[in-house]
Specification:
Chain lengths: 294, 318
């Protein structure tokens, strides 16, 4: 299925479709290209990490604990149990992306239909807005605290807490874009033509709202990555000995005096990941902006 | 104006009530029978029934909820399972720390964010803008607890400029209090500063290209005066809005920051409670956070309907 269709009301000059224009703008933006390449590389490493990591993540070596970076055999050193830091970072990044994708998918699956309904059906708007207010009142960390109390701390519960906390943002952007699209002629034409509400939403509104959803998702992913790191750092997310960038930092804090470098690397990776997503998200938003090159 | 405020007040009250329902039901969803936990040694059916009766657990759910609301309204959140200390008195010692930390963080973030945002808008397309934009992106992407770790490692431990952890109450020693809170507040404020900077920049760009700014320039006002008296004034509403919207993030951030710097605030109390399965404390923390969010956002709405007449007109017409 094509992600971006050419809507009648937003038709561009002959010969260039909107999608081609967006891609061209992205290609011409060096920051977009660099961040995309970084993300693609990270994605490949994350997917393949169980096979390409130099050591098994849980393989301890008590004869070589706290090896500094550059040690032969351990490029990024070893931790308090002699486990290879590079391997753990690779699998930790994989876990970060897993949580982020799960969280964002959760927020989209719940938020997009609710946003469409709130924007399209006036009667539903008030109810859904109250739900949004209610969700906003529970910050993700507090939500995670509650979930951890009820269901225990785990990767899934961390992702669910982050995802629930991101639902209001999705509802808001989808709702306002639906309101905008609803007032456009091609939607009115479809309604006059006798199309059902569901058909109009699925065929006309949703496809045209994909760009705002896409932008929302690209800013939600880095937020989720940071959220996972925080939760795992506090012990509310991924549980040791499973590798996670957040838990690596929690361990590093305990041994910071002995191995300060251990507190630097996982953080750099988290920041790099989030930064690449944020830069790409900014570039994507600019490229999709119909107002053109601002 | 009054109609808008009444609608907003009604909505806030409803959200508040719903959030108490969520917290109440959430506690009922906890694993384990509370009567069994409270019973201790004597687990005979009679003893359990007596406990259920004593705590009202044998009552219908709506009645239990009404009683719960009544207690909460009087500030009675029960007692900590671990220490037996009333949760309300734990809150009275913990909350001032967190409130002070958050207020400091908001002040720092506003100063940095507005300053950098104005600079980026005025110096459009020049290195100052790129620098400000780049810093804002980094501020959005950096895990703050990690910045905190690095700050402790390289600023506190290495140079001794700041204490690595601990807290002195404001009343005992104001200077020592600030000394302990500055570093955590800066760390907590960085993310907020980045968001404020980005919004201030785009609001400033909008107002700088508006008619009233052109008029102000045309009548010969100095650029500095145009920026501070006309453009910036309109952008400040952005800051008020963001602080309201980002309050949730700020609370989450405060929890982590307190944990790292060992500040005896609300956040530390929360995390300790989770690991000790201290349910009355968790319940109070969740409810209080929701209440704070709802009340403060209502106040923010009030505040900017006072600042910006356009909002009350639009809101009243809806």
């Amino acid at each position: 299925m094509t992600v971006l269709t050419v809507p009648m009301a937003e038709a561009t000059p002959a010969g260039t479709t909107r999608r081609a224009r967006v891609l061209r703008r992205l290609r011409r933006n060096p920051l977009a290209v660099v961040s995309f390449v970084v993300l693609a590389l990270v994605a490949v490493v994350a997917v393949l990490s169980p096979w390409i990591a130099p050591y098994a993540v849980e393989q301890t070596d008590f004869a070589h604990t706290f090896a500094p970076p550059g040690t032969p055999g351990h490029v990024l050193g070893t931790d308090d149990l002699g486990r290879d830091v590079l391997s753990r970072i690779m699998l930790g990044a994989r876990a970060s992306l897993q949580v982020a994708l799960l969280a964002v998918a959760t927020s989209l699956v719940v938020g997009v239909p609710l946003g469409l309904a709130a924007g399209y059906f006036r009667a539903w708007d008030a109810v859904i807005s109250r739900l949004t207010d209610l969700l906003l009142a529970f910050p993700f960390l507090i939500m995670a605290v509650g979930l951890a109390a009820i269901r225990g701390a785990s990767l899934t519960n961390a992702a669910v807490a982050i995802g629930i906390a991101q639902i209001p943002g999705v509802i808001r952007v989808v709702r306002s874009d639906t309101l905008r699209l609803k007032s456009l002629d091609f939607v009115a034409a479809a309604v006059v033509d006798g199309a059902s509400d569901l058909w109009v939403l699925a065929r006309h509104v949703l496809p045209n709202a994909t760009s705002v959803i896409l932008v929302q998702a690209t800013v939600a992913v880095p937020a989720a990555i940071l959220g996972e790191a925080v939760l795992s750092f506090l012990g509310l997310g991924i549980q040791p000995p499973a590798p996670s960038l957040g838990t690596m930092l929690a361990t590093a804090q305990q041994f910071a005096a002995r191995a300060p470098w251990a507190a630097v690397l996982p953080g750099v990776v988290i920041m790099g990941l989030a930064l690449a997503f944020n830069v790409f998200g900014d570039a994507l938003r600019d490229a999709l902006d119909p107002k053109g090159d601002r | 104006m009054s109609r808008y405020l009444i609608t907003r007040a009604w909505q806030s009250a409803l959200t508040l009530l719903l959030s108490t329902v969520v917290v109440f039901l959430g506690v009922r969803a906890l694993p384990g029978d509370p009567a069994l936990a409270l019973a201790g040694e004597d687990r005979s059916p009679e003893a359990l029934a007596a406990i259920r009766h004593h705590y009202g657990l044998d009552q219908p759910l709506p009645l239990q909820f009404a009683r719960y609301l009544g207690r909460v309204a009087q500030g009675d959140f029960g007692e900590s399972i671990r220490t037996g200390v009333p949760v309300s008195s734990m809150l009275t010692t913990a909350l001032p720390v967190t409130v002070e930390l958050s207020v400091l963080a908001i002040l720092i973030a506003t100063a940095l964010g507005v300053g950098a945002g104005v600079l980026a808008a005025v110096r459009r397309g020049r290195p100052a803008e790129w620098l400000a934009n780049g810093l804002a992106l980094v501020g959005l992407s950096v895990p703050h607890f990690w910045l905190g770790l690095l700050a402790i490692l390289y600023l506190s431990v290495a140079t001794g400029l700041f204490p690595a952890s601990g807290f002195v109450p404001l009343g005992d020693d104001p200077v020592g209090n600030l000394h302990h809170l500055v570093l955590p507040a800066v760390i907590l404020g960085t993310g907020l500063a980045a968001i404020i900077m980005r919004q201030t920049r785009s609001a400033m760009l909008d107002s700088l290209s508006s008619d009233y700014v052109r008029t102000a320039k045309a009548k010969g006002l100095r650029p500095r005066a145009v920026i501070s008296r006309h453009a910036l004034r309109n952008s400040l509403i952005v800051v008020v809005t963001i602080v309201g919207l980002q309050l949730g993030g700020l609370i989450s951030g405060a929890v982590v920051t307190e944990q790292i710097f060992g500040l005896p605030g609300f956040g530390k109390m929360t995390i300790d409670a989770v690991f000790q399965r201290d349910y009355p404390v968790i319940q109070a923390v969740v409810l209080l956070t929701a209440t704070a969010y709802i009340v403060i956002n209502f106040l923010v709405d009030l505040l900017y309907s006072v600042i910006d007449p356009r909002i009350r007109v639009a809101g009243g017409a809806a």
